[in-house]
């Protein structure tokens, strides 16, 4: 039994996580939120109070924190008495926060792979470069660390585990498909931090096929998918975190990630990328100023959290597993459909933030009640998916299945 | 009779001007070249020596100069004893250099309208904002100042004057058409300083039609033109310097400027412009760094002078005048065709720099021999075009005409 939660980060995802923690504070206990800019945390708490999200009277405090500073994170953990840290800050802070959790014996979660700001797309499997090097330390200190517990990675890993446990025992392929069929009404915007968004696509596209890492370029391989609710959508093979753990856990299956992109996004990306404007390496202007192009691009683009009020339409994200069960061909697509406007009405954020920010709260609830408090480091497909998906069914991200028997909700 | 020339600037156009001055140093006398970075001037002089461009033995010296500093420019004029200044530096320095010429009684030329770095596209007529305010001072001090004596503005103004003098006495329209049908082989590049290039297109498109200034957006009005040598080409109505003087001198004619753009250029421009990356106004990154987006875009794009070795194809730039002569409908297109590879072989620059850099040398020769040493400020259409076009026929930019009698070279 663990109680009291520290949320690190104050962007769109953190806002969702904050609301969802508040809605379940009877189980989670005291709530704290910390980021470099305390004012952003104050705003989030203000929004939680406006929507009366706290289920029971309780603590929700804002803190200023440099999450790159392990000692500062450990101090805050001691000072607040939290036993669970949900890290939804920048992926540059994962290792410093995890280190603080190891020092203090606190449960840790994040939603994206650790990144070094100066490097794009390291060698696969990505988790092997930073996270898994701390696995033994977690086991030794009995620290629960759940990696990549957003929607994708996260819920889609649980979908894969469920599909293989119950529907396709011998998987030959695992395809994650992520379609955002929403419309934010801007000429161009990314749906989350532009710096992180573009960094996903400027490197090599790694997939696991025929038992080995394969490399492609972004937008090299596209495919039309016919999906529930959102219909026929074109998606492109993309490098993504969950490929790197699923390929390690299911090495006999091909593992690929597909993300939907419209022609307009691809065109803007291609122009910026070909001109060198998505580079993480500084260039010098004629006046001698050193500028990282990607950071300027981030500065001129809309703040993704500003999109929420006008965002309409739905997302469909799921896991398609094909293979055999008892010698027979089998295929199952397990998925969720989220609505941007519903997310805004409930927690003041758009659907992309919603799908990423709710799952770590479900995981925190499972750590709080002991179900997932496993005392070591895990990727999501290494945990029992059913209690997790059951909570998500209840708190806003219901699971559906499509197979030979049609489409239907899944409960356990 | 004036002698000894100071070239200000050390870009691609300055390189052409330097070679052409050298090829005519028997008339022009001592040559000097100055820019902020003396090393660039040294390189240009080295290139002049490599190609043995100096017609007769003579002086060619490099200098370091901050051309925004009028006193420094005046000092250099005194020190070198020049009587003619060819300003082919950034358009931000026009007024400080002109002021130094006024102080020292030196003839002045430039190739583009003066610009304030912090302002895009001021009110029409553009020359009225800075240049023409110094017209009286030039007349009082008997200083010859020839404005906009590149190709466009410059030669095209002379074409307009010639067309109206000799072929279309009552002009109803003057259309300048600028087509670059060359290929530089890069994914994207501007043909001259990206900062100046993009600044031309981010503001209002001013044209003079039906006796008044009309406003349009860039790429709003496009038209296919069937031109000599380069064939059918799409060009778009664009704001450009010469519209502002020709409209003042020929207020009864519609005056428009058309520049050729491929779909690829338009797409890249549209993406950069819509995202705010062509702005001259600083933005602040999340890290607190103030950056002028346009200056970063300049830094990531190819240096236009690097394009020359691979540039192939031709340019066609000319003036189409329609109207009446002795009561009869009349129409004439006066134009030049330049070849990128020929330009590179002769002076080490591509064709766009060549067409801009040669005309001020022809004008310098006419100031040197007294023909154009008018002792006041003039736009090019206010001067006798024939001696000017005759020199250009001889030094690399021959004039052609297309009218009811067909296409043919023009000599006088």
Helical percentage of chain A? 25-40%
Return the CATH class of the largest domain in chain A.
Alpha Beta
Instruction: Name the strands of the widest sheet of chain A in spatial order.
Output: 10-11-12-7-15-16-18-19
Describe the global form of chain A. globular
Number of strands of chain A: 19
Kindly report the average pLDDT value of chain A.
96
CATH architecture annotation of the largest domain in chain A = 2-Layer Sandwich
Distance between the termini of chain A: 23 Å
Largest interface: A-B, 26 and 26 residues
What oligomeric arrangement do these chains adopt?
homodimer
Parts with pLDDT < 50 across at least 5 consecutive residues of chain A: none
Q: How many domains is the backbone of chain A divided into?
A: 2
Largest sheet of chain A: 8 strands, mixed
Beta-strand content of chain A? 25-35%
